[in-house]
Specification:
about 40% helix, about 775 residues, alpha+beta, 24 helices, 18-stranded antiparallel sheet, two-stranded antiparallel ribbon
Length: about 775
C-alpha cells in the first residue's frame, strides 16, 4: 500500500471519528460534518482543495504555536490526504517529527518530498537537519525547525505539484544548499542528474544512495560504503552523494581519504555551488577551517544560502577564537579580549562560543571576564536545551570558585636516607601545617608552621677509626671522646608569604633550637612574552641533604658548631609548549655558605620536553626526556669539620626518561610518576678540613700515626643507572574534607631514600569543588 493511500485512509478515519465524537457530545455536529464535507469537496475540485489546504495548514500552525503538536499533526495528516505532494505540509510535519525524535517517520516524509519535488529549494537543508538529528539528537535544532513553520505557502506548492522534472538552473544551486548548525552537519542535497551524466546513471546513483541509508540504518557500514562508492562512480558530480561517502569515511577515521573524496569532487565540478558547500562542510568537520573557507569562497557571497552564511559565520568565529588563543599564549590581554568580543558578537546565542571565550580569557588572568562568559554560556545553553554546554559552563564557574578556596592542611611525613649511622644517615619526622587565605581569584596569603625532628642515628665514639670521619675527631687523636652520641635537631620552623599571578614573596627562619639557625626567604616573579612563560627568582634556602647541611651539628671533640648550609642565588626559568607539548629550561647560579664550612658555588642547568601526552576518561599520561647539569667549585660531600655534608660533584650530567600518569574519578584522584635515569659524575680529592690548614695538618699526622692512611677523601668518576618512583592518592570526603597518602623512593648507587606521608585538608568555605589532583601539604624548608 502506498504512503499516500495510507495517509488518505487515516484522514478519512480521523474525520469519521471526529463526527461521531461530536455527535455523542451533543454539539458541534455541524462543524464536524463541515470538516468531513470539506474533505469530499477537496477531492472534487481544485479551488476547494486549495481552500481546505489553507484552512488545515492554518490550523496546524495555530496548534503548533500553542504547543499542541499532536493536534497540528492531525491537521497535517488531513491536509496530506487531500494533497499528498503539498510541500508546506510535508516540511511542517517533517519538522514536528524531527522535534519529537521520530526520525524514521521524518525520513519517510522527506523521501515523499524528494520524489514529488526533486528540485524544490531547501530539500538539502532538510537532509542536513535530519542527519544532525540522527548524529546529535534534535535538542539543538529547535530554532531551525521552528523556522520551517512559515515557509512555502500551499499555493506555490500546488503550482509545483505536477509530474514534470525540469532541471533546476545551476545558478540556483546555492539557494538549495543546506543550512548547518554551529557544528558541521551531514547534508544530502537534491539528487538530480547533473550535466554530462545520463539520467539513467543519475537514477541508479540515487537508488544506491537510498540503499546506503537503509544499510546504515541496519548497521551495515561496509555495505553502505560500497553502495556510496558505486553511486559516486555513476554520478561523480553529485555533491551530496560524495558528502555522504566522505562523512562515512570520516566516521571510520580515514581523514585523508575523506578529504580526497571531496577534492576529487571539486575537480570534477569546479563551478558547482553545492559541491563547494559540501566540501566546506566536510573540511570544517575535520577541523580544516582554512580549507573550508577556501572551498566556501568559490561561491559568490551574493548567492549564499542561509546555511552557507551560517557556516561562513562559524568559520569566522572559529578563526577569531583561534586568534584569541594565540594572543593569550603570548600574554597579549588586549588583543585576546578584542578577538573574543568579535567572536561572541557574531555568535551571541551560541553557548559553546561563550564557553571557549571564558576559558581563554581566564588564561590571561581576566577572571571577572571569564565569569561573565561562563554565565552567558549557561544562559544560552538553558535557552536552547544544550545540557552539554550548560555542564561545561557550570564547570567553568566551579573552577573559578575553586580558585577562591581558603584551607588548612596538615599531616605527617617520615623519610629515611640510609648512610653511616651518626654521620651521613638522615631520618626526618615532620608535621607540616599549611594555611592559605584567598584574597581573590589569584591572590593569596599563606603561612607555614612545620615541626621538624631530624636525626642521623647513634655515633659510636669508642670506635676511633669509624668516628674519625666526623667533626675533628681524627685531628684530636685516639682514643677519641669515648661513649656515644646521637646527633639530632628538633624545632618548629615558620614562614609567611603572599602570592598572585606574577609575584610570590615569602620569609621565614629555621628553628632557633637548631645548632645553626638563620633566616630564609625569596622573591619570585613570573610573566609571559609571546608563547614563552618566564620566571626569575632570588632566594635563600636551606640545603636539606643531611643533618649537618640542614640543621648544623656540634663537634664532639671541640664543642664547636659547623654546617647549616644555605644556598643563595638567582634562577631563571622558561616554559613553553612546543608542538603542543610541555617544554622547560632553567639556569641557576648559587653561592653556598654555612658556619665553619668552605664557601662554594653551584651552577645548575635543567631542561626537559614531554614528547608524548595522552588524555581521556579523566586521566592524563605524559612521557618525556630531561637533562640535568651540575657543577660545584668544591667537593663538600663529607661530615668532617669544614665540610657542608651535601653532594657537590665538580661535574654531573644526567639524562632521564620521566613518565607520569595522573587523573581523577569520582572522589578519588591520583598521580603516579617514575623516572629512569643515567648519569656520569666526577668528584675531586678533598682534605678532611679544607678551610683550616692547622687542623688538616693535625688530622694528617694522626691518620699516619694511627695507620688510617691520609686525611684526604678520594674523588673520581662515578655514575650509572637510577630509578625514582612516586605515588600520591587523595580522596574527597564530603564537601570540605580530603585525605591523602604518598610514597616516594629513589634507587641508585649509594643513594636510596624512602619517604612516606599522610595528610588531610579542610577548606573554610564551599566555593567550587575540592581539587581534582592530590595536593600534599608543602613543607616550607623544601621551597
Amino acid at each position: 500500500m502506498s504512503r499516500s493511500r495510507r495517509l488518505s485512509q487515516a484522514a478519512a478515519v480521523t474525520a469519521v471519528v471526529a463526527l461521531v465524537a461530536s455527535t455523542l457530545q451533543g454539539g458541534g455536529t455541524a462543524a464536524a460534518a463541515s470538516g468531513f464535507a470539506g474533505m469530499t469537496t477537496a477531492a472534487g475540485g481544485r479551488g476547494a482543495r486549495v481552500e481546505d489546504a489553507r484552512s488545515l495548514l492554518g490550523s496546524a500552525r495555530l496548534w503548533r504555536e500553542r504547543g499542541r503538536d499532536d493536534l497540528a499533526r492531525a491537521a497535517l495528516d488531513k491536509l496530506l490526504a487531500i494533497e499528498p505532494a503539498n510541500v508546506t505540509a510535508l516540511r511542517l510535519k517533517f519538522a514536528i517529527e524531527v522535534e519529537a525524535n521520530r526520525l524514521d517517520i521524518a525520513e519517510g516524509l522527506l523521501q515523499d518530498l524528494e520524489r514529488a519535488h526533486p528540485e524544490a529549494p531547501g530539500n538539502g537543508e532538510l537532509r542536513a537537519l535530519l542527519a544532525e538529528a540522527r548524529a546529535d539528537g534534535p535538542r539543538g535544532l529547535r530554532e531551525r525547525l521552528r523556522a520551517l513553520d512559515g515557509e512555502h505557502e500551499p499555493g506555490a506548492a500546488l503550482a509545483r505539484s505536477g509530474t514534470g522534472r525540469a532541471r533546476r538552473p545551476r545558478a540556483s544551486a546555492a539557494a538549495a544548499a543546506p543550512a548547518p548548525a554551529t557544528a558541521p552537519a551531514v547534508d544530502h542535497g537534491p539528487a538530480s542528474a547533473t550535466e554530462g551524466e545520463s539520467p539513467d546513471a543519475a537514477a541508479q546513483a540515487r537508488a544506491l544512495r537510498a540503499q546506503s541509508e537503509a544499510l546504515l540504518a541496519q548497521g551495515d557500514e561496509p555495505g553502505a560504503r560500497a553502495a556510496l562508492e558505486q553511486a559516486v562512480a555513476l554520478d561523480p558530480r553529485n555533491a551530496w552523494t560524495r558528502f555522504d561517502l566522505a562523512r562515512l569515511q570520516q566516521r571510520r577515521g580515514e581523514v585523508a581519504t575523506a578529504r580526497a573524496t571531496m577534492e576529487a569532487g571539486l575537480d570534477a565540478a569546479p563551478d558547482d555551488a553545492d559541491m563547494a558547500y559540501a566540501a566546506a562542510l566536510v573540511y570544517a568537520s575535520l577541523d580544516a577551517d582554512d580549507a573550508a573557507r577556501t572551498a566556501l569562497s568559490r561561491i559568490d557571497t551574493a548567492r549564499w544560502s542561509e546555511g552557507m552564511r551560517r557556516l561562513g559565520t562559524r568559520l569566522e568565529v572559529s578563526a577569531l577564537l583561534a586568534e584569541a588563543r594565540a594572543q593569550a599564549s603570548r600574554g597579549n590581554v588586549t588583543a585576546t579580549r578584542r578577538a573574543l568580543e568579535q567572536a561572541t558578537a557574531l555568535a551571541p546565542d551560541d553557548p559553546s562560543v561563550a564557553l571557549r571565550a571564558g576559558w581563554t580569557v581566564q588564561s590571561v588572568g581576566d577572571y571577572d571576564g571569564a565569569r561573565r562568559y561562563f554565565e552567558a554560556s549557561a544562559r544560552a545553553a538553558r535557552g536552547d536545551g544544550s545540557p552539554g554546554a550548560d555542564a561545561g559552563a557550570l564547570r567553568g564557574l566551579d573552577y573559578l570558585e575553586s580558585l577562591r578556596q581558603g584551607f588548612v592542611t596538615s599531616g605527617f611525613e617520615y623519610s629515611n636516607k640510609p648512610g653511616d649511622p651518626g654521620i651521613s644517615r638522615l631520618e626526618r619526622r615532620i608535621v607540616p601545617v599549611e594555611l592559605r587565605w584567598a584574597l581573590g581569584y589569584d591572590r593569596y596569603l599563606f603561612a607555614h608552621v612545620d615541626h621538624l625532628e631530624l636525626s642521623s642515628g647513634r655515633l659510636d665514639l669508642t670506635d676511633f677509626a669509624y668516628a674519625a670521619a666526623y667533626g675533628s675527631i681524627l685531628a684530636a687523636g685516639p682514643p677519641g671522646p669515648g661513649g656515644g652520641v646521637t646527633p639530632t635537631a628538633t624545632g618548629t620552623m615558620g614562614g609567611i608569604g603572599y602570592q598572585d599571578s606574577h609575584w610570590r614573596i615569602d620569609a621565614g627562619r629555621l628553628p632557633a633550637s637548631f645548632p645553626v639557625s638563620y633566616a630564609v626567604g625569596g622573591v619570585r616573579y613570573e610573566d609571559r612574552i609571546r608563547e614563552l612563560t618566564w620566571s626569575v627568582e632570588l632566594a635563600r634556602r636551606p640545603v636539606t641533604s643531611t643533618l649537618v647541611s640542614f640543621a648544623g651539628a656540634t663537634d664532639p671533640a671541640t664543642g664547636l658548631r659547623w654546617g647549616g648550609v644555605r644556598r643563595t642565588g638567582v634562577a631563571l626559568g622558561v616554559y613553553a609548549k612546543l608542538g603542543g607539548r610541555d617544554s622547560y629550561a632553567q639556569v641557576a647560579r648559587y653561592a653556598l655558605d654555612g658556619e665553619n664550612v668552605q664557601r662554594n658555588t653551584e651552577t645548575d642547568v635543567r631542561a626537559g620536553h614531554d614528547w608524548l601526552a595522552l588524555g581521556g576518561d579523566g586521566s592524563h599520561l605524559t612521557l618525556g626526556t630531561g637533562v640535568t647539569v651540575w657543577q660545584y667549585a668544591h667537593n663538600q660531600r663529607y661530615e668532617t669539620f669544614g665540610h657542608g655534608g651535601y653532594y657537590s660533584p665538580q661535574s654531573y650530567l644526567s639524562l632521564s626518561l620521566p613518565a607520569q600518569w595522573s587523573g581523577a574519578r569520582g572522589p578519588w584522584s591520583w598521580r603516579l610518576r617514575a623516572v629512569l635515569g643515567w648519569s656520569t659524575t666526577r668528584e675531586d680529592d678533598v682534605p678532611y678540613h679544607p678551610d683550616d690548614a692547622a687542623l688538616q695538618a693535625a688530622a694528617a699526622a694522626q691518620a699516619l700515626a694511627s695507620g688510617l692512611g691520609t686525611a684526604t677523601y678520594s674523588g673520581g668518576h662515578g655514575g650509572g643507572f637510577s630509578l625514582s618512583t612516586a605515588a600520591l592518592v587523595e580522596a574527597r570526603i564530603g564537601r570540605a574534607w580530603a585525605v591523602g597518602a604518598r610514597f616516594e623512593a629513589d634507587r641508585s648507587e649509594y643513594y636510596a631514600p624512602n619517604t612516606f606521608g599522610l595528610w588531610f585538608r579542610y577548606r573554610f568555605n564551599e566555593r567550587g569543588t575540592l581539587w581534582g589532583t592530590p595536593r600534599a601539604p608543602a613543607v616550607y624548608a623544601y621551597y
